[in-house]
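Researcher: Please predict.
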Amino acid sequence: MLDIGGDIGAVVVIMPLDLVGQEVDILAEGQDVAAGLDHADDQDHADEHGHGHGHGHGHGHGHRPHVAVVRRPMPGASEPVPSLIYPEVREGRYRLLMKGTDVVVMEVDVVGGQVTQATWPTVS
């Protein structure tokens, strides 16, 4: 279940199988991609690390919000699909980066009250 409405939406990204277990940061447009790179992930927080819960908004202490790539059941799929879910994201444009890097892999536009769906780009 996703808690969306008003100016809060959600993001679902279909991911490659080889990225299961990796974490992906989400940053609002205008946020410095280098901010939070030196942050040790030892804070007590509720990010989704494959446990089915979490959030997609900032912590306020230089931490880049992130979620893990996990295999999840998807409508119409015969087996679980590797994906990211950012369940509560304020509307706007966001950049996604592999955790610990400053390389923007993709961008998504979030609309309040809606689920934005995207597919992680493949390297050719």
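Model: Confidence is low (pLDDT under 50) at residues 39-61.
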